[in-house]
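INPUT
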Amino acid sequence: MSNQNQLVSKVDWITVSLYALFVLAGWMNIYSAVYNPETHLWIFDAKFYDSNAGKQLIWMGTSLILIICIFAIDFRFFEAFAPIIYASFIGLLVLVPFLGVTINGSHSWFKFGTITIQPAEFAKTATALLLAKYINEPQVNLSKWKNQWIAAAIIGLPMILIIASNETGSALVFASFLILLYREGLPGEYPGLFIGSVTIFVSALLLSPWTILATLIVIAGIIIALSPIYVQRLKQTYTKAAFFIVGIMFMVFLVDLAVNKVLKEHQRNRIKVLIDPSFDPRGLGYQVTQSKIAIGSGGFWGKGYLQGTQTKFDFVPEQSTDFIFCTIGEEHGFFGVMVVILLFVAFLWRLMYLADQQRSRFARAYGYGVVGILFFHFLVNIGMTIGLMPIMGIPLPFFSYGGSSLWSFTILLFIFLKLDSHRSDMLSR
Amino acid sequence: MAKVKRQNIREIITKRFILFFVVVIMLFVILVFNLYKIVFINGDTLRNDVFNTYVKERSVDATRGNIYSDDGSLLATSLPKYRLGLDPSVYNRNATSEQKFKEHIDELANALANFFQDHTAEEYKNKIVSAKKNGKNYLLLNNRLLDFQERKKVAKFPLFNLGEATKTGIVFDKVNVRYAPFGQMAYRTVGYLKDKVAVGIEGSFNAELKGTPGKGLFEKMDKNTWRPVEGGEESVPKPGLDIYTTLDINIQDIVETALMKAMTTYEGDYGVVIVMETATGEIKAISNLSKNANSLTGYSESFNYAIREARDPGSVFKLPSMMAMLEEADLPLDMPVSTGNGKYHHYNGTMSDSHPMGTISVAQVIESSSNVGTMVLMKKVFASKPAKFYDYLKKYHLIESLHFQIQPNPRPNFPVPAKWDAFQLLWSSVGYSTQYSPLQLISFYNAIANNGYWVQPIIVSKATRADEVVIDYRASQVRDQAPLCSPKTLAKIQSMLEGVVTKGTANNIKGTSYGIAGKTGTAQRIINGRYIPGKYYTSFIGYFPVKKPKYTILVSIDNPQGHAEATYARQVTAPVFKEISDNIYLRDMKLHRKLAGTLPDSLNKASLSHTVHPMDQTILYSNFGLPKVEEDGSWLQFKMDKQLVQNTPLSFPAKTVPNVIGMNLRDALFTLENRGLKVKANGLGTVVSQSVPAGSPTRKNLLLQIQLQ
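OUTPUT
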């Protein structure tokens, strides 16, 4: 009993409240997105549960059960069983191409009766757990090559499997583990390299490899020319720069190959539309344009709850899943959108703060994993709806409709909150 | 040392924490900035852009009104046709529909390939699968328009038959197609709208027929495909008015048959027939045939000569001259007129008769159609007061435009007296130096038949919506309150016209039981302003029955040349008149014995089997006092047996010759020509035999002969 009370007092209620707020607000928006003034159903109507809003209500109820389960489990379980959890999800990802079904063009779902589950969503949590456990090993030092390779393998394995099941968007989420690794001592060159390669990748879609190469060499030349002023160890710097240029050259052509040979037409187009809106073979810019319209037409205060017309007319496809943000924009306006964004920032800040409070390196690393994943989702999803990012099937955490999505984010978050509630039980290191 | 290092790590970590959070904040600031841009800066532009690109308020065409004949037979109507599309995104909704799609897509592709016969099943499958994959919510499956029967058939295809349309994704977009059940019949008069060209009744009554378009929101689906946004209709289109013409399908049929026969026999350049109901001025039939090498018969309707082609009328114009002279000078019919050697010299011009006639009576001037006689009298009566002649013509409605309902119809070309040259009075009295359209001439002759009372010709009697008459054109029809001439003059004129047939230039058509009166006209053709001998414009204008005229008919054939001896009106146009009047008379005799009804002739013969077009079923049912059955577009075969009417829906398999036995001509033509067959029809009534048996495979341009009885 006292143990229970202790637990209640140790749970971070700020985070839990924000979570509850997000989920409820999300549900109201899903309700609005599918709301039909003519045939509108109330919660007590059995038919209501055929609609997205009804189904989401079921997912929310089951999420509560999940939370209780997580809190019932011993907190040491997550660290101890991380390899097994990871292995089992890798197993599921391997099986999905053979046993899975296709939904919305993505062959990544398991079907149990009427319930469909997307293992890729859960693989993020499993990966975060194993990565945190690995980093927790006393001998691991992320500035060492060997440890970097192992960490990369832990992240890369599920990524490759997810890409294989045609869910490139979900796979990209794994890039957010860079934040975790960076926090835990990965040298700063890596995130820099990552950002650099994304830039090169995008420019490879637009420019010829030679143009990119020329530009890069010019930039490198300027840096090298200026470097003697600031850098003492010239020789080492030149060697590094030479390696760097060769590496870049290799990469540019690799990217060019990847973009023009490996990427499929529709994937290429999605990115091209983003950068060049006039390039629009119908249906690509359509979604984003409609989404922008929905948000833009909301004005400052929005049209009011259930009053959105753009969303009602089904102008925006996927509006209760990936494009739920534009329903908020249309009905609650710039004001509503700002509130959501500020709450998200507060939420991330709180999670980072909590993560830094952890005495166990496992909990802290895991916490940063959670922060990274959620941050990536927020950024990409909102960016997607306003046309800053390519459309790649990334849901808005807690808001978007979908069982797999809500469950996986709930599990991801509450494992951390469970760990956090036991932070005083941990030995500081 | 250790302490320092430890501090370093902490510093680094703190630095990284802050750095990361700064990055987070920066990225969110970028997001917020972009949101701000969308909402406050681009908001309006964006909305407009999309509305212009993807959603548009477009006008929704109203259903065009029908054009009917005087008995309510359809001359032109709009039939609903359907364009088949698919919303493949419905199969992305959940695993069940995904499964269904997988199971049935091959069958569907096969069915589509078999039905349309234009692409392979593989091509259809690929098209659908890729549209589904790309999340499209509209895919045009085929551009061919389906009729209601085909629509029903397509809805039963695999995958489409698994539930309601919203779940199966099947989309039928309705398109109205103009369709003339009688095909070529009165084609040019009924008219058409093609691109920007509008002719005939369709063109002249476009404003009434087209209705008021509605407005609705449309969403762009494809390059050229716009689909209405559900619930987005803003104003409902108001259907167009139905136009009732005065055309009588049976008379039209008689006229076209007779004219076609004459044209193929005499090989004229073009031919015109107008039939006008004497008492009402209503046009009962109008036919224009001109040479067309592409037509099976060598002739087709391509220009409304009856209304638009003004020509030197020739001898038929002697009648208004004679009427004016009789009115002015009260000439006795037996007064002698000297025509001498058949030549009349006036300044440097000479007008001759067909042969020298010597001294003849006034009556014979018309009966034998003497140019010289007319001119001699003309000089005597009007030479001192030529403007008076003009006034008479004005009174006879031969100067101003008829203001006929089909546009354009300019005024006759007859100059005002101030502009006359030395020849105008005498030359125009015999039908030269002036130009009239056939319609202008027949309206004058009609007044003679109508006891001297002139009525404006009309071809459209009313415009209706449902059963309510919205515009009554008869009410605004011009009818003279006073006769054109005195009863005495009229009696003289009428007796002269009878004389033309009994003892004059048209005595080859005398001897009918009902009697014909009329006037021949053989005008020399003018080419480049010069009269060309041997090339004639032949006319016969008259009326029948002679005692109590019911119809006034004009027949004109330009440049008859098929028979060497037959180039005059007497041999060419007078017999056509007789053939038409004989047939109309016979039909009217039959009509008198029949109950008045609105059914087409062919449907009234009891205990015969008939195949009836969906449009006519309504008429048929109401005529038998039966409740109206669901109009689903099936052809029905009726068997009438004393009290019992049985009907069996018929269907004609694709790519085979349909069974048209039992149909009337227009239905048979429609059914056969719709399948690309060429049809040659003989006889009147219902089809009793067809040269290629039903069920045989068709090929394009297959010629099929049908016999009607």
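end of record. The two ends of chain B are 122 Å apart (CA to CA).
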